[in-house]
Design goal:
The complex is a heterodimer of chains A (about 160) and B (about 500). With about 160 residues, chain A is an alpha+beta fold. Chain A has helices spanning about 5-15, 25-35, 40-50, 55-65, 85-90, 90-100, 145-150; strands at about 75-80, 115-120, 130-135, 135-140. Chain B is elongated and about 90 Å long.
């Protein structure tokens, strides 16, 4: 088992909140990803077993949502919003400069395992474009210098 | 009951069906009423993803998909109006935006719904200037199936099939939007006893069977209706034939027997028809003690002489008969006529029992065991007991299922016989001890009837010329009966 007993208990707690078991699938996947960092095939199989689904069905859900990772990434996930309002405010250039700064392309992880960089669709902060998200934290009204500072400060 | 009107014609149908289901039940879908569709399949759940089956319904402002719109009493449906045709054109254009149009090297060409509907409803030119989405080619999905991602239109028929029919669910559509792609779960293969059906239901050339891939263009094939003889289910198949050869079986719909499916083992059993181990000449054991090739006439005469001498000297009680579940009812009836004429009572049936499942596969690995039982052939154990206790001096055997471990397990005991007459479509170890060997036809080479495990009687007709000089067993038995002078009036 790759899912801990604590996570399993938390998943059961989520399941209890929904009229049908599978309603709790998204919260459960968040819990497992938080614990393991990513959703490996083994973890996916275990989740499928809990929810009485086929592993492939859980995989379809994982692959549908950007916030779920089927593969292991860096210690921090940095998402640059490149949706329309952010793009109008220079987000694509910002992403390119961060790619150059880290020496990786969007979707890749730095060789020291520190940062996984990716682009993201709308994160709902259009009024503060351009923006990026580091793990659970939003950083808004960015320019290139400020964004690089934020990235450099990550452990 | 509900009355619906389709393009001006009124039909009566059951309530609780969707439009496509009702038309399918009436037998008029694509057979008078043309509603093109990709994702809908009569034996799978409704998906509603391809959007091609849109129709006009009186009183409904927008077009509705026929696959997922329930019928109502008095519903007026129009399937050929200008808005419907325009919608189909639009959907076809979208489906073709990223299609590679590699028909010249695609095995599906000629039986491709994308080709058919593009011809019927498509536009001639592409308006897109953007490069087509590149996808994975020649993806190994498992032991039987190859996947071409670029050709896939994401109708999910295969996904639903694997979840709903064999229940294995190895494949899914991963990703979102134009990143969506059919894939297997990491580390899993598309590998189940019914896997090759996904190639049949794939409306395009995305999923093809490795077995049939690049063998022949489908428009050279003549599809002959036939029966799979791999087990007692008797699944209905089309035999794809060309150059007097069977290239493949594909399932033929019969809702009473196999719906629209056939198992992989049964599908691959077409290879037995023209296989290298076909027994295609008659043989008689000569003075040197070896089997010598001869004519069927001479073999029948030799068998007749041996049996006549034995029966005259010792009576029919020393003769035994083992029927096969691979013969047609007509073959078995002729066997019964011969045995009745000779007065032979020691009769039995040898079939091989194997694995079964709850879907189609039956344990009895012969198409007509039930037919043989109905004609009075019980289990072969009685005959074999008599053989082992030395009570038999002659045996007439159809096929070689007798050699299976469930019966004799080999030829031991048979070498003591004074006379062993074998009728078989394929070579077997029986020939080491047989005195007369007659070549029999495969089910694909003769006319007749098979009775399946539920008692459903199904007809077959010849699809290819017989191998060599193979004769139907019925003919061989009748000729033998005539030579023995025991042919009744009803014999052919």
């Amino acid at each position: 088992m790759v899912i801990s007993e604590e996570a399993r208990a938390a998943i059961d707690g989520e399941i209890a909140r929904y009229p049908r078991k599978r309603g709790a699938l998204l919260p459960a996947l968040h819990l497992v990803q938080k614990e393991l960092g990513h959703l490996s095939p083994e973890a996916t199989r275990e989740v499928a077993e809990i929810f009485e689904l086929r592993p492939v069905e859980v995989m379809e859900v994982i692959s549908f949502y950007n916030m779920f990772h089927a593969r292991a990434g860096g210690r921090h996930h940095v998402y640059v919003c490149t949706n329309l309002p952010c793009s109008l405010r220079g987000a694509r250039g910002l992403l390119k400069s961060l790619e150059a700064h880290l020496g990786i392309e969007a979707g890749e992880t730095t060789s020291d395992g520190r940062i996984t960089l990716d682009h993201e669709e709308c994160l709902g902060a259009c009024g503060y474009a351009p923006m990026l998200r580091v793990d659970e934290t939003y950083h808004e009204d960015l320019d290139e210098a400020r964004a690089k500072e934020i990235l450099d400060a990550l452990e | 009951m509900a009355k619906i009107t389709v393009d001006g014609t009124e039909y009566e149908t059951q309530e609780g069906r969707t439009i496509l289901q009702a038309l399918d039940e009436l037998g008029i879908l694509m057979n008078g009423v043309d509603i093109p569709h990709y994702c809908w399949h009569p034996k799978l759940s409704i998906d509603g993803s391809c959007r091609l089956c849109q129709v006009e319904i009186e009183g409904v402002p927008k077009l509705q998909i026929a696959c997922n719109t329930p019928i109502k009493d008095g519903m007026e449906i129009r399937t050929q109006t200008a808005p419907v045709k325009e919608a189909r054109e639009g959907v076809m254009e979208l489906l073709l935006v990223n299609h590679p149009l590699d028909c010249p090297i695609c095995d599906q060409a000629g039986e491709c719904k994308l080709q058919d509907y593009a011809f019927e409803y498509g536009v001639e030119h592409s308006r897109s200037r953007e490069p087509r989405r590149a996808g994975k080619k020649n993806v190994d999905f498992g032991p039987t199936i190859t996947f071409d991602q670029e050709r896939c239109i994401l109708c999910r028929r295969c996904v639903r099939f694997c979840r709903e029919v064999p229940g294995t669910g190895e494949i899914g559509v991963f990703g979102r939007g134009d990143h969506s792609a059919l894939e297997t779960f990491p580390g899993l293969e598309l590998d189940n006893p019914y896997s090759m059906n996904v190639a049949d239901i794939c409306p395009v050339g995305a999923l093809t069977t490795k077995d049939f891939r690049f063998k022949i263009r489908v428009w050279f094939l003549e599809d002959v209706p036939g029966i799979c003889t791999g087990c007692s289910k008797g699944c209905n198949v089309w035999l794809g034939t060309a150059n007097n050869k069977v290239y493949r079986y594909v399932p033929r719909r019969n809702d009473a027997v196999n719906e629209t499916w056939v198992c992989d083992d049964g599908r691959m059993s077409y290879r037995h028809i023209g296989s290298a181990d076909r027994l295609d000449r008659a043989m008689v054991r000569g003075e040197l003690g070896v089997l010598e090739v001869t004519s069927v006439d001479d073999a029948v005469a030799a068998a007749s002489e041996r049996l006549r001498a034995l029966v005259d000297a010792k009576g029919p009680g020393v003769v035994g008969a083992v029927a096969s579940g691979h013969g047609t009812n007509e073959d078995l009836e002729a066997f019964v006529r011969l045995l009745d004429g000779l007065g032979v009572e020691n009769r039995g049936l040898a079939t091989v029992q194997g694995e079964s499942d709850e879907l189609l596969v039956q344990a009895e690995k012969a198409a007509n065991g039930e037919g043989a039982r109905k004609l009075g052939f019980g289990d072969a154990a009685g005959v074999l007991d008599r053989l082992n206790t030395g009570g038999l001096e002659a045996l007439v055997v159809m096929g070689h299922d007798l050699l299976d471990a469930q019966h004799l397990g080999g030829i031991e005991g048979l070498e003591r016989l004074d006379t062993l007459i074998v009728l078989d479509s394929h070579h077997s170890a029986l020939e080491r001890v047989a005195h007369v060997v007659l070549p029999a036809r495969h089910a694909a080479e003769k006319a007749g009837h098979f009775t399946n495990h539920e008692g459903i009687v199904q007809a077959v007709a010849p699809a290819v010329e017989p191998a060599g000089e193979a004769v139907p067993e019925a003919e061989a038995f009748d000729r033998l009966a005539a030579a023995l002078g025991v042919a009744g009036e009803d014999a052919a």
